[in-house]
Amino acid sequence: MNIQVLPNVFKKISLFLFFIGIMIPLTDGFLHPFESNEGGGEIRTAYGHLLGSFFLIGIVMYFLSKEKIEDELVKKLRSEAFSLTFLLSAIGLLLFHFFGDAQESYFDATSLIMLQIITFLIIFYFKKRSFDL
Amino acid sequence: MKNMIKVERARHDLTQADLAEKIQVSRQTIHAIEKGKFVPSTVLALKMARFFEIKVEELFMLEEGD
Questions:
Q1: How many whole angstroms from its chain centre is CA B27?
Q2: B40 close to A (CB below 8 A)
Q3: Domain boundary among A44, A66, A88
Q4: pTM to 2 decimals?
Q5: A81-117: pLDDT as tens digits
Q6: Size of interface A-B (CB pairs under 8 A)
Q7: How far apart are CA A30 and CA A132, in angstroms?
Q8: Which residues does chain B have within 8 Å of residue A131's beta carbon, measured at their own beta carbons?
Q9: Hey, where are the domains in chain B?
Q10: ipTM for the complex?
Q11: Yes or no: is domain B2-55 CATH 1.10.260.40?
């Protein structure tokens, strides 16, 4: 099953969205580090939600985009990256189960899924690099 | 598993990029197959054999231990 349904050009669009979602809050934090939220709380929340949407859409779009040449080597590397991500997630959950605070919930669903997507993308990137793709 | 892709490529005077374009894979895939780092699917092996006009057994051979 191939879930990469978007053409390769969406990779560049998704990176653009991803960096908007990441860089604007970062630069905003550097430029106005001690600015109070008083009075502008709702606007800042809506602004944060919008940037968060850019980040999420960017990363999911990247995840769904095809490589320049989508052949069986890429599919194999992607499949290996999925397996490794799943294994790392299971090991992570096991570690949190035994060594984490039992009273605290470890992650919310969004954080867990985002962490998995980011882990997958990093593993897939290094696997492609190992084949000079 | 060893293969004769490099030999056949030389016989047909093709670069890895040429062969990759003919059978619609990336140049890196051809390189990985030639180096034995990646074993292609039956479909891809048959495509290559058809392209070189030889039998697939002449292009890919099992080694001891396979």
A1: 11
A2: yes
A3: A66
A4: 0.79
A5: 999 999 999 998 888 888 877 666 667 777 788 788 8
A6: 29
A7: 37
A8: 28, 32, 37-38
A9: 2-55
A10: 0.87
A11: yes
